[in-house]
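Sample intake — Phosphoenolpyruvate carboxylase kinase 2
Collected from: Capsicum annuum
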Amino acid sequence: MSDSLKRNYCVCEELGRGKFGTVFKCYSLATGEPFAVKSIDKRLIADDDIDRQCLYNEAKIMHLLSPNPNIVRIFDIYEDDVHLDMVLELCNAGDLFQRLSSRSVFSESEAVDVMVPLMKAIAHCHLLGVAHRDIKPDNILFNDSNELKLADFGSAECFREGQLISGVVGTPYYVAPEVLAGRNYSEKVDIWSAGVIMYIVLAGVPPFYGESATEIFEAVLRANLRFPTRIFNSVTPAAKDLLRRMLCKDVSRRFSAEQVLRHPWMTSNGETRTVALL
């Protein structure tokens, strides 16, 4: 890590490790407040212009999006010849992947608790001209107050209104069919990925399944959305309607983030939950 970071923060235990960087818990020496620091070894990307550009884009895009209550906030950046260190909001209450692994399915009310803040985060990104491009449960974190935070903008791309994006990025199960088909695409790839997450949260299984990455991609390209009775018997028609509008292969008919947030399943479930808490 950079010496300048260590002058301002006390770095503690490791929280996670990725392809190029490691995340640690740290404390501000001035205030004692806890943070996370993502430390990247620049030597690992010295020979790859694309990876290097992604890492610098991530810091720039996170600054653009911050602060937002549903997006991991970036506070400081430190850099020397070897390291790029990003001081981030600490989210140490696990991620959505861990929560999905520990239980079979969520109730619709619980699913709304996930989908509303997730879609608010995506809507904020799209409003500011950012496509995340890697929406998946591993990148949906929770803090100690159980607030959802969208993270990991290493694959994100800026766009202008009406401008299409290129590049095959994303994760099997969650990547949109137009990406796999090699076409240029819009920010609505994030809506597809969020729709996959909603389906998994409600059903406990992905909508497009395969035993290998190739089989998964073939299923995604077919985009044959089904609601097996044995799984979806207790799921409401409104939830299925929203899934059809998010997991729509025809991008022109696929909902925008704002349309998802206005859908009756999102709003009526939210109102019911609010009334129940009063």
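Post-analysis note: The chain has two domains: 7-88, 96-277.
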